[in-house]
Amino acid sequence: MRSGAKVAIVGGVFAVVAGGVGYGGYNLWNGITGGDTSVGSQSGDAPRTGPVTPDEVTTTAAEFLAAWAAGEPEKAGQLTNDPVTAGPAVAAYREGASVSEATITPGTPVGTKVPFTVKATVTYEGVSKPWSYASALTVVRGESTGRPLVKWAPSVLHPKLLGADATLRTGEAKTATVKAVDKNGDELSVEKYPSLAPIIADLRTRYGARTGGTTGIETWIDSGSETVPDTTVLVLQKGKPGTLKTTIDPDVQAAAEKAVKAYGQAAVAAIEPSTGAIRAVANSPAGGYNTAFLGKQAPGSTMKIVTAAMMMQNGLATPGSTVECPAQVFWKGVPFHNLDNFKIDGGTFTESFSRSCNTAFIKSLGPLSDKDIEDTVLGETARRSFGIGLTWKVGVPTEDGNVPESSGGETAASYIGQGRITMSALNVASLSATAKNGGFLQPYLVARSLDDREFAQADRLSSEVTLGLQKMMNAAATGHGTAAEAMAGVPFPKGAKTGSAEVDGQATSNSWFTGYSGDLAAAAVVEEGGHGGDSAGKVVGTVLKAG
Predict the structure, then answer these.
(1) Mind listing the pLDDT tens digit for each residue in 260-313?
(2) pLDDT digit string, tens, across residues 60-93
(3) Strand, coil or helix: what is 465?
């Protein structure tokens, strides 16, 4: 603590109370162990081995917390297994957060883990406010010394200090307070829409100065990264918020939040095809990483929307043309098969699309057909016709998809959304939006006029390709199509495409689903969710019904 601060360590487990700056001359170690300083290795003794004992856990935790509270960062650092990093971090906490008073209360150890609470007062330029939070530390055995040591992580100091360069700061906020509102002008509360927390933080950073708001005094976590927004943990004095209008639809957003909550790791995004306006974005878990915008995952068979467009643009197929759909094909020695090795005899391209026949797409292309096309054409189609791989300026950070040049078996895998292709839920929602609209309109969250940013542009689809995609996506969403069950009850006009993407190290594939209904398109991914209609389809169906 800075000069004049009051610090204390209290708690029934440790039964230690000390007052005054730096504990005066009180020997905390002796106060706990009754003078026994044999914990850890002694000079001349061989380093201890084996798990740390309960006494070592209690003692080491108390010593570390006491050094931290006393404003002794070097001592605190030496009590960890990474003193080079821990010491400066403890010093930065003391100096950067402007804590004028603090009490640290250890809880009951659970094995080697010791929970504790911090109750502090933060003071900056005469403005003070209480601040409390809970954290925990873990005690381990030092690999070389055998001493019991705190396992260092920045989150020991505060649970939201997750990055190696993250630090706590108190002062005048970097940006003005922003009140983000939905398309109707009503405030978007992170309590009601928790998935919007990182998005609103990004919007504040980017547009706070443009909304007429004023800065307040805050304690925040400085991420130390240009790509990760800072996180406010305490507001000492509120600034005057400026109003920032977004494109979020409150009904669609509420449905999206509820839908993804049913799954451990899931993301969904929804777009208005006629404008590109983003109507919803939700993630599970909520409030953390914005996977819906920043995900980089193989999109599985939802990629067949792009592949089908490429085939129609290059004269390889039409919705009514006959295509072969065998149970298995080989591409340059690499086998590809359909789910459960199904096949379609004498079927049309629409039937193969609606039932997600992998082999039909692969056999109709490359060395297995009489119309071999270059390995670069899929990527060119994705960029030129769907805007995938261009630079999107949505208003917050996004990953904008990648369809790289491929060769060999990887080319065939790319046609069905595997290989090195990566997309986010927002990218895949845009595929459906483009098919419904007949052309790509870059998704956006705040108006372009706010900062005159340049939107990504792509060529419109021809009427033949547009109608072809809509016909095939409608077939997938009705009758015996793979998306029919998930799209049951979704209003017409509608269309969809299922997908599942195999991921190395996962026993179950990721579930993908995209579709449109009226003037709303959406896409979802559920990690290890299985077939597209099993889980991601339920998310998208729920979102489309709310539009």
Answers:
(1) 999 999 999 999 999 999 999 999 998 788 999 999 999 999 999 999 999 999
(2) 999 999 998 888 899 999 999 999 999 998 888 8
(3) helix
Question: To 5 degrees, how large is the angle CA 155–CA 157–CA 160?
Answer: 45
Q: How far apart are CA 376 and CA 302, in angstroms?
A: 19
Instruction: Provide the token pair at 241.
Output: 């918020």
Confidence of residue 111 (pLDDT cuts 50, 70, 90): very high
Q: Model pTM? A: 0.71
More confident residue, 7 or 285: 285
73 CB-near residues (< 8 Å, 6+ apart): 67, 87, 88, 89, 90, 91, 94
Say what the pLDDT of residue 23 is: 27
Tokens of 150: 């705190």
Tokens 């792009």 locate to 306
Segment 379-407 shows an average pLDDT of 93
Q: What is the residue-wise DSSP string for 87-132?
A: HHHHHHHHHHTTEEEEEEEE---BTTEEEEEEEEEEEETTEEEEEE
Residue 275: which of 433, 492, 465 has the closest Cα?
Answer: 433
- How far is the first Cα of the chain from the last one, in angstroms, to the nearest whole number? 53
Residue 306 near residue 401 (C-beta atoms within 8 A): no
| Rounded distance between C-alpha atoms, residue 241 and residue 211, angstroms | 8
28-31 long-range Cβ contacts below 8 angstroms, 24+ apart:
28/62, 28/63, 28/66, 29/59, 29/62, 29/63
The pLDDT score that the predictor gives to residue 40 is 42
Residue 217: pLDDT over 90: no
**Please, where are the H alpha helices in 365-499?**
377-386, 409-415, 425-437, 463-477, 484-487
Residues in contact with 129: Cβ distance below 8 Å, sequence separation at least 6, in sequence order: 121, 122, 234, 235, 236
Cα dist. 101→130, 320, 393, 468 in Å?
Answer: 9, 75, 44, 68
Residue 462, CB-side half-sphere exposure with 13 Å CA sphere: 10
